[in-house]
UniProtKB/TrEMBL annotation:
<keyword id="KW-0325">Glycoprotein</keyword>
<keyword id="KW-1015">Disulfide bond</keyword>
<dbReference type="GO" id="GO:0005634">
    <property type="term" value="C:nucleus"/>
</dbReference>
<dbReference type="InterPro" id="IPR000757">
    <property type="entry name" value="Beta-glucanase-like"/>
</dbReference>
<dbReference type="Pfam" id="PF05997">
    <property type="entry name" value="Nop52"/>
</dbReference>
<dbReference type="GO" id="GO:0030688">
    <property type="term" value="C:preribosome, small subunit precursor"/>
</dbReference>
<keyword id="KW-0539">Nucleus</keyword>
<dbReference type="Pfam" id="PF00722">
    <property type="entry name" value="Glyco_hydro_16"/>
</dbReference>
<dbReference type="GO" id="GO:0010411">
    <property type="term" value="P:xyloglucan metabolic process"/>
</dbReference>
<keyword id="KW-0732">Signal</keyword>
<protein>
    <recommendedName>
        <fullName>xyloglucan:xyloglucosyl transferase</fullName>
        <ecNumber>2.4.1.207</ecNumber>
    </recommendedName>
</protein>
<feature type="region of interest" description="Disordered">
    <location>
        <begin position="600"/>
        <end position="649"/>
    </location>
</feature>
<dbReference type="GO" id="GO:0042546">
    <property type="term" value="P:cell wall biogenesis"/>
</dbReference>
<dbReference type="InterPro" id="IPR016455">
    <property type="entry name" value="XTH"/>
</dbReference>
<dbReference type="InterPro" id="IPR010713">
    <property type="entry name" value="XET_C"/>
</dbReference>
<keyword id="KW-0808">Transferase</keyword>
<dbReference type="InterPro" id="IPR013320">
    <property type="entry name" value="ConA-like_dom_sf"/>
</dbReference>
Amino acid sequence: MKGLLFAILTCSFWIIAQAGNFYQDFDTTWGDGRAKILDNGQRLTLTLDKTSGSGFQSKNEYLFGKLDMQIKLVPGNSAGTVTAYYLSSQGPTHDEIDFEFLGNLSGDPYTLHTNVFTQGKGNREMQFKLWFDPTKEFHTYSILWNPRHVIFMVDGTPIRDFKNLESRGIAFPKNQPMKIYSSLWNADDWATIGGAIKTDWSNAPFLASYKNFNADACVPASNAPNCALNAATSKNGWLNQELDSTGQERMKWVQQNYMIYNYCTDLKRGFSRPSRKDPLLVVAAPMDALLTGAIIAKRLASCNRVARERAVRAFSSWICRQPNDAVTDADLIKVWKGLFYCFWHADKLPVQAELAGRLAALVETLPPPLAFRYFEAFLVTIRREWGGIDFLRLDKFYLLIRKFLRHAFLLLRKKGWDPDLVSRMMGILLEKSLLAADNYLANGVKYHLSEAFLDETNDLLPFLVDTLDLVLKPFILVLEKSADRILVNKIKINMFDRFLENGRKLLNLMKAGSQVELNTEEEKLGKITLSLALSKMFFDAASALETLQANRKILFNLHEGFLKLENDLEKSGVHISAEFLDNGCSQDVSSTVVIESTEQAEIKNEGIEGNPDDKQSKKRKKPKASSDADQRKKKKTDKMKSLDSVSESYVVEPSSEVDVVNAGIQNGDMMETHETIDFNESVISNLQRQFEKAAAEADILNGSDQMSASPTTPIAKIAVKKRRTKAISAGANENGSSPNSGSITGKSGKKVRFSMKSNLVWKPNSPLPPQSLRLPPSVTPKGSALKKGVPPGPIKETSSKVKKMKAKTSSVKKIRIAVKSPSAIKRLRKLQSRSV
């Protein structure tokens, strides 16, 4: 070892430590002009099209050093492409240190592939998912190579440390100088999901960019193949550099969260050129015997991380190519069984988030019919397996539910909030989760859906007004029909209470004249609350026959809260204008909030005639209500006048207040009157006395003979207070006629005590019209007036039902006893009585 170190130190070498220029340091080697040096040597681009790729290499060879390159990778759908940046020597026993970036589908992260070759032997791969988008900006990729370590770094963060373990018989690259190479080429036979995803040439040409190359390295002379430095000679001291405790912690964090393959621990290599016999790598349009739901599910549930990753990519590519009728519901259930356990095995937070996003994004990508079935299979599977999830994994499955809920509504927005699609999606949520009829122990699914619904859809608001009705309808149905008190309370608190609270906040801000910040929860939910008649929806739900009795109180409370808010909005005079999106076109839907009552309209009309400044401040004084005695006196006078003016037929014209109201109702138009009829007990009692007076007058005018010939007419029962009043005449007979022909006194009084006979039978010369005698059904006689056999309410002539008695069967002994003949004494007495 000492002899080798002495030989190295005595060899000649060059040291460079400067920022490079692509004209001076590199040559374009292939591509027929597809590799271009731009900006006076400060930037270089590589291009790939269907004809050829391109590449370049450095002019110098390096033996140890720190080499940096800033690269911006191919954007968009780069599946099947590979961008490489690596060090390599020549010959069959070459050494090589690789950075390779495997292209991806749109939205999927790049795979960073690292490898180290020594003496022509490799298979020392480690793969990572980048934690940023490498296509938007330039990022720095560095290789630090010295006699003890090969350290791979991304933006200064170490991701891998390949150590010199020659003492254990493991070769290390230290003797062969290497050049820098970079290339962009098509490798769709193995690069993306083992070749399952081919390059989409419609996106060509593909472009990768390079800049800010920096080399702090040893360049050996031609007559000295080796070189070494001490730490003092190098600018950055890279010769003896190794990771400190901070660097080791950062590398550990990357490997724990973003490493997807490690050749030391993962026995099966998941990125080499695959066998074409693998059915997962055969992409077919229809489902056939090579690719079924059972095969995909088996690979998805594999314990090997790389196998699961390949299976997810193959499934994503396969299902996007299938027509709706080619995938059965049974296949989707089988696939989701595998996807469930694929997500179960994802134990690192970034991997969980990335996998949840990829699975949920398929809802938005697939055609709507297949997307709905895929979403339905997800809900069925998550409910079936929910009881077996331990509490340590609950959070990641909550994340999966949120992702699917959000992408479901992204699909609806993408389709312009089509009412049929919205109804279908909300129906799936209702039938497969919120009011699912299965027996699975999966209450947590519907609880979390109700908690996360507004959080995940808040930034998609506002909806169309009609769309919002469809969206809220399933949750109101849950409030009507669900016996789960926890679910009902969660929907009330997390949804409708939030609507109510934000509506109040928005109304208070606008009443105070404060500026309402756009795109906030108060602005979005508040506008929806103030623009829709939610109180009526809750009242209808609470009044429905099928609503559970235990839930009516909650629904009525919500109705009262929203009704109070709507009344406050009317009184405030605030005008709310909510903008809704209608298939991409802006539509202004203004809610009219100033709804005047009759009294407010009268005040405004009075203000126009007077001082205009006092319109809002003046209040119309209501006329002073007269006493009950005055009202009764007035009604008595009007009734007596009407009775005096009628003919002997006693047909009452619709001149009284009751008749005017009834006539207006019969014509279909409710006439406006200044006095309303309140059928309280005093009014009913007055009417009864007036009827009795009319009967007495009829007896006086027509005589008792004519009265007896008139037919009897039943009238409605009237509930009156039991009062003892003076009779109209001391000599009044039972029929109501008076022996004296004097006039009737002004005081009203009863002839007899209150009885059903006089209450039910009315005997004037001619009966009163039925419409003049109608009373509310609730007005029924009280106390002793309710005789046995007379049903309460309006009197109807109904035939009394004869109760059929069931014939009793008597025993033979009783029959024998009953058949016994009377005694001889009784027969004798009977004969004697007949002879007399």
